[in-house]
């Protein structure tokens, strides 16, 4: 019964999407198609779990997760504050701020740029999460160590992107600033920083997902008795998978909100850039 | 070649800072020990002591190098103490995940490029999937797959796969769409079929994009494999070495595992870069 319903939902969802995609491309269809797809997946998931009688220890049904989400909202909120607001966000602000200041300095001295950029590119490819146990040892179990991990993780991607962005002005534009008798700082503020914004936001977006990952993984190496990483690893041990999935929903919502917020700010700041123009 | 001197300078400065930091961080412990043994410790002796402790807060670079040497060259590679053994455990999971992720990524990209419905419904979710901190659910994936009787390499590879498919999808979609209108029209004037168009035009055109994303995917895949080893309880692999080191306060062991991971990552990314150079050269694209 449930299996048939699942297959039916899949076919219906797909047919609806084919019909929607065949229509003229507009904002509504661009939004509706992925939503329909997502809903279909959730319905099929529910149907499969019920139809095949999958044990909740392996994969809880979406309805069970939603129920758990409502039931333990208090715990989830506490974990959210501990991990996202205290750990990830403070580390993100410190790390990105430090990276941007460093980028301006690096950009000023060509020697530094040629030396630091290859090193930065190299470090950005390394598994930096691995420093988590060391930083937890240095800064203790509370959120300070999580913030430190986040700082280290976001620093290099933002630095590399910002340095690249600061170079993204043409000689003509810089010459024009010189004919206006603009000094270094005026040129930096009025021309080069705005021109670097698309690159900087690219780095900030990459860093936003890294920040959440860093804060959660650092909790696996030791944490106070709250926090999303702590809750996930202990609940897995207790086989309370519906709580784990509820934490994942929180993490996904936080991650998407973070990313979406950055995208909105980017849209407002870089409205002049070709990738943002003519979209609406 | 012009950047050799600056890079060397920066590396030298980092090493210098590292030595200075290890003096600063380890001095307290050295002074405490000396006070307990009624010894005077100062000047050169203090500095030397901070660079040769057993469990320092921050081991000096030469200590890490010595540990790396001891655990790679000095050990039989089948021994559990050998970092080569642990590195291989992690690397095999990384490569399996990377392979699966690349295949999944390419096939999704082909679907997205050729099917408008898939483009509109799957692409936003591919992007959304990366805002979920997947590493956070690594423990659950491992435990659940273990409960289903799948253990060992595969669960770690699944996490690596999830992390590595995304850059490949994004890069390949961009690459497969990189041929211009004119080139596509040219193919049509030769009455090329769709498979021909794909094999002769789109696929070759996407190669530079594929290699660029494969480098990112490899780095991500290694991170996935390392984190995937954490919840299995420190059995084998670089992640297990990190966890065991943090349990027992063996900082030198943590740092050497970290450097081993860095070496593996750099080696793998370098290897892809080499393949990229050879392939693109033979295709006449450089």
From TrEMBL, chain A:
One of the record's GO cellular component terms: plasma membrane
Subcellular location: Cell membrane
Any GO BP annotation: transmembrane transport
Superkingdom to which the source organism belongs: Bacteria
Bilayer-spanning residue ranges: 31-49, 89-107, 119-141, 147-166, 199-223, 243-265
Domain ABC transmembrane type-1: 98-269
UniProt key word Transmembrane helix: yes
Statement: the UniProt record of this protein carries the keyword Transport: yes
Keywords annotated in UniProt: Cell membrane, Membrane, Transmembrane, Transmembrane helix, Transport
Membrane topology: Multi-pass membrane protein
Family annotation (InterPro entries): MetI-like, MetI-like_sf
PANTHER family: ABC TRANSPORTER PERMEASE PROTEIN MJ0413-RELATED (PTHR30151:SF0), ALKANE SULFONATE ABC TRANSPORTER-RELATED, MEMBRANE SUBUNIT (PTHR30151)
Name by which UniProt lists this protein: Pyrimidine ABC transporter, transmembrane component 1
Biological source species: Salipiger mucosus DSM 16094
Taxonomic path: Bacteria, Pseudomonadati, Pseudomonadota, Alphaproteobacteria, Rhodobacterales
């Amino acid at each position: 019964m449930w299996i048939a319903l699942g297959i039916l939902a899949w076919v219906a969802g797909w047919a609806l999407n084919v019909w929607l995609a065949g229509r003229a491309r507009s904002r509504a269809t661009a939004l509706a198609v992925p939503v329909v797809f997502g809903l279909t997946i959730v319905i099929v998931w529910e149907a499969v779990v019920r139809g095949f009688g999958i044990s909740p220890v392996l994969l809880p049904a979406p309805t069970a997760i939603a129920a758990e989400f409502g039931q333990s909202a208090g715990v989830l909120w506490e974990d959210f504050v501990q991990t996202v607001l205290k750990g990830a966000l403070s580390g993100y602000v410190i790390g990105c701020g430090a990276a941007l200041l460093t980028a301006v300095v690096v950009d000023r001295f060509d020697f530094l740029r040629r030396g630091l950029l290859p090193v930065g590119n190299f470090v950005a490819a390394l598994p930096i999460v691995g420093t988590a146990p060391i930083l937890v040892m240095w800064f203790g179990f509370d959120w300070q160590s999580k913030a430190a991990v986040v700082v280290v993780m976001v620093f290099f991607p933002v630095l590399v992107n910002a340095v690249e962005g600061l170079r993204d002005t043409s000689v003509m534009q810089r010459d024009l600033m010189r004919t206006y008798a603009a000094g270094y700082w005026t040129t930096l503020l009025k021309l080069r920083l705005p021109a670097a914004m698309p690159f900087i936001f690219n780095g900030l977006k990459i860093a936003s997902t890294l920040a959440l990952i860093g804060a959660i993984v650092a909790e696996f190496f030791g944490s106070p008795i709250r926090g999303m990483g702590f809750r996930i690893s202990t609940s897995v041990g207790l086989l309370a998978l519906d709580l784990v999935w509820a934490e994942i929903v929180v993490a996904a919502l936080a991650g998407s909100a973070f990313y979406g917020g950055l995208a909105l700010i980017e849209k407002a700041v870089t409205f002049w850039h070709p990738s943002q123009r003519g979209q609406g | 070649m012009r950047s050799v001197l600056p890079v060397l300078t920066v590396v030298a400065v980092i090493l210098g800072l590292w030595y200075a930091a290890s003096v600063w961080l380890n001095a307290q412990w050295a002074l405490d020990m000396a006070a307990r043994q009624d010894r005077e410790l100062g000047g050169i002796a203090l500095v030397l002591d901070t660079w040769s402790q057993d469990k320092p807060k921050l081991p000096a670079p030469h200590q890490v190098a010595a540990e790396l040497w001891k655990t790679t060259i000095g050990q039989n590679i089948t021994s559990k103490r050998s970092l080569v053994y642990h590195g291989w455990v992690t690397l095999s999971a990384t490569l399996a995940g990377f392979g699966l992720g690349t295949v999944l990524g390419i096939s999704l990209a082909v679907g997205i490029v050729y099917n408008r419905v898939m483009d509109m419904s799957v692409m936003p979710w591919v992007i959304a999937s990366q805002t979920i901190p997947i590493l956070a659910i690594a423990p659950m994936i491992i435990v659940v797959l273990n409960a289903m009787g799948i253990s060992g390499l595969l669960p770690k590879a699944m996490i690596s796969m999830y992390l590595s498919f995304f850059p490949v999808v994004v890069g390949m979609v961009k690459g497969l769409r990189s041929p211009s209108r004119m080139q596509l029209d040219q193919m049509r004037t030769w009455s090329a079929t769709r498979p021909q168009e794909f094999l002769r035009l789109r696929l070759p055109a996407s190669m530079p994009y594929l290699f660029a994303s494969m480098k990112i995917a490899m780095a991500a895949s290694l991170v996935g494999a390392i984190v995937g080893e954490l919840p299995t309880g420190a059995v084998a692999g670089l992640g297990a070495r990190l966890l065991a080191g943090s349990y027992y306060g063996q900082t030198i062991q943590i740092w050497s595992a970290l450097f081993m991971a860095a070496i593996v990552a750099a080696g793998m990314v370098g290897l892809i870069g080499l393949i990229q150079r050879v392939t693109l050269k033979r295709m006449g694209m450089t």
